[in-house]
Write a structure and sequence with these properties.
InterPro entries: Homeodomain-like_sf (IPR009057), HTH_TetR (IPR001647). By secondary structure, this protein is mostly helical. About 70% of the residues lie in helices and about 0% in strands.
């Protein structure tokens, strides 16, 4: 499975047409009921054009991820390294995601958020971060820099994911504060106070596991 990017106006127009067509069809049907033939007809493109860019319909999610990633990065890039607060930058991330709420509502309703975030995570992977850092600074970044960025973005993505699952109800500024509070709290992960949180988490997980095992037990015959 693959999503291939071609840098030309003609190819970009074909990708946009396919993406827009799929969004419209997802409002009517689950992805499992959509065929490539129907998608091509709705998009006004040929099957060879579709296969030039995608291997399967699911790969169009990669296009959506690329669009969200690019619009988000374009919004925050001018803010980075110029004295702006972390809260301001993270708030811009949430604001850009809000601009794609129609997309996220559809993905949530059709149980497609997980594969979408898989594509988004690849786009935000370590090689991408390295390229971004090198383009912003003419110095070789350290491994510690990569580790911090990867850890920070991983946590932020997890909060964004749960926020979208909940219908994106909380405003961007509130979510930005949530990310910062979580980051500050995790800073004390190995302090004694962390063990209170750890104990609560393990208690909840243990209860859920016990309930799941109980539900899995066959019912006794009367």
């Amino acid at each position: 499975m693959a999503y291939r990017v071609y840098q030309s106006k003609r190819n970009e127009a074909a990708q946009v047409a396919i993406g827009d067509a799929l969004l419209g069809m997802l409002e009517e049907h689950p992805m499992s009921e959509i065929t490539i033939k129907e998608l091509c007809e709705r998009a006004g493109v040929s099957r060879p054009t579709f296969y030039r860019h995608f291997d399967a319909i699911e790969d169009v999610l990669g296009l959506f991820a690329q669009q969200v990633f690019q619009s988000t990065y374009r919004a925050i890039a001018p803010l980075m390294g110029k004295g702006n607060s972390g809260v301001s930058i993270v708030e811009h991330v949430f604001e850009k995601f809000l601009e794609h709420q129609r997309l996220f509502d559809l993905l949530r309703e059709r149980d497609l958020l997980s594969p979408f975030f898989g594509y988004l995570w690849v786009l935000n992977s370590l090689p991408t971060q390295e390229q971004v850092i090198r383009s912003e600074r003419s110095i070789a970044p350290t491994q510690d820099t990569f580790d911090v960025i990867t850890y920070s973005w991983g946590g932020t993505f997890s909060i964004i994911f749960t926020w979208i699952l909940d219908g994106m109800k909380r405003p961007a500024h509130e979510m930005a504060q949530a990310v910062i509070r979580a980051a500050l709290h995790v800073g004390g992960t190995f302090d004694a106070s962390y063990h209170d949180v750890s104990n609560i988490m393990w208690s909840v997980m243990g209860k859920v596991s016990a309930e799941a095992q109980q539900d899995a037990q066959p019912a006794e015959r009367c």
